[in-house]
Amino acid sequence: MASPIGLLSGRLALVTGGGSGIGRAVCHVLAREGARVVVADLNSIAAEETKKHLDDIGGRFEHLALPVDVSVGRSVQSLIVDIRGKFNAAPSIVVNSAGITRDNFLLKMDENSWNAVMNVNLKGTFLVTQAAAAAMLDDKVPKSSIINIASIIGKTGNVGQCNYAASKAGVEAFTRTVSKELAKYNIRCNAVLPGFIETPMVHSVPDKVKEKFKALIPFGRMGLPEEVAEVVLFLASDRSSYVTGNCIEVSGGLAT
Ligand code: CAA
Ligand code: NAI
């Protein structure tokens, strides 16, 4: 059951990539804390499934599932228009979790795989943040929090992921810059850097590579999406009211 008075009571949250993995866990935790949640995903069936799950948790508030392709400006603009039409307000919490991998070694990496990852992970984060921030200002939202899901790989690099690592390092730099620009509007912007988390994204990683990674993680196991979501909750809530421009690692100690 959602708590009657949670940390986010009365807040409106937008979660991209909310149809799966980390995004879905974030939706759950934000709704549990009393937020109304807009679940936005390229996969509209998955987004509806998350919304149904949120409705089943209970609570006073209505949630919404909407389709979006975060890599396309028009699609992101329609998403924000639809949210404001439905709730009469801009979201005051935005979580950019939509992301993809197209792994290959540098010497085999094709241009489409490079572009696809940059367009969703980095450009998508830019498009959603820009559109949401403009709406927050228009609607005079008194305080807002934007949380970008980057990756520990953006710091460490990873064999087979030059596109993905570059996109996630870009998200970190983007986060720090946006935090400086938007602080005067009381909009905070932070990033979370997960390590290896049990979600569909890691299913395609060959078992031998997974074993190599587990050996490098001090906790000796992969993380759970819920363990990332609780840190997102901290950044979304007033518990982190003086925190902006930070990139918090949630990686079981993996840092090499
Ligand atoms: N770290 C260390 N070694 C790696 C590696 C990695 N990330 N990826 C591949 N290798 C090694 C393999 O173990 C293998 O070693 P051996 O020759 O000793 O057996 C060698 O590279 C060749 O690998 P493949 O036979 O798999 O080569 P391939 O051409 O068939 O596939 C690949 C290449 C697509 C890069 C594939 O190896 C792969 O998918 N690797 C995993 C990449 C990865 O780690 N992705 C993380 C996804 S999860 C994520 O991205 C979320 C996040 O933020 C953490
Ligand atoms: P996932 O694959 O389970 O979920 C990603 C979601 O994003 C899916 O529902 C997918 O439909 C959606 N999506 C993909 N492209 C989209 C687009 N163009 N527009 C809108 N939605 C789109 O992956 P996971 O693991 O939940 O990843 C979430 C975020 O966390 C990603 O940004 C990922 O890079 C990041 N991350 C994941 C880690 C992991 O180990 N699972 C580790 C570090 C970061």
Automatic annotation (TrEMBL):
- Which Pfam families did the record assign? adh_short_C2
Name the family the entry cites.
Answer: Belongs to the short-chain dehydrogenases/reductases (SDR) family.
Recorded hits in SUPFAM superfamilies, A to Z, give: NAD(P)-binding Rossmann-fold domains
Q: What is its EC number?
A: 1.1.1.239, 1.1.1.n12
Entry's localization field: Mitochondrion matrix
List the PANTHER family hit by this protein, alphabetically. (3R)-3-HYDROXYACYL-COA DEHYDROGENASE (PTHR42760:SF83), SHORT-CHAIN DEHYDROGENASES/REDUCTASES FAMILY MEMBER (PTHR42760)
Name the coiled-coil region(s): none
Its pathway? Steroid biosynthesis; estrogen biosynthesis; Lipid metabolism; fatty acid biosynthesis
Protein name (database record): (3R)-3-hydroxyacyl-CoA dehydrogenase
Q: Which NCBIfam families match?
A: PRK12826.1-2 (NF009466)
GO CC aspect terms: mitochondrial matrix
The molecular function terms of the Gene Ontology recorded here are: estradiol 17-beta-dehydrogenase [NAD(P)+] activity; quinone binding; testosterone dehydrogenase (NAD+) activity
The UniProt catalytic activity note for this protein reads: testosterone + NAD(+) = androst-4-ene-3,17-dione + NADH + H(+); 17beta-estradiol + NAD(+) = estrone + NADH + H(+); 17beta-hydroxy-5alpha-androstan-3-one + NAD(+) = 5alpha-androstan-3,17-dione + NADH + H(+); a (3R)-3-hydroxyacyl-CoA + NAD(+) = a 3-oxoacyl-CoA + NADH + H(+)
Entry keyword set: Fatty acid biosynthesis, Fatty acid metabolism, Lipid biosynthesis, Lipid metabolism, Mitochondrion, NAD, Oxidoreductase, Phosphoprotein
Ketoreductase domain segment(s) = 11-197
* Oligomer status and interactors: Heterotetramer with CBR4; contains two molecules of HSD17B8 and CBR4.
Q: What is its main location?
A: mitochondrion
One GO process term, biological-process aspect? fatty acid biosynthetic process
Q: Which superkingdom heads the taxonomic lineage of this protein's source? A: Eukaryota
- Entry's InterPro entries? KR_dom, NAD(P)-bd_dom_sf, Sc_DH/Rdtase_CS, SDR_fam
Which positions make up the signal peptide? none
Q: Which PROSITE patterns match?
A: ADH_SHORT
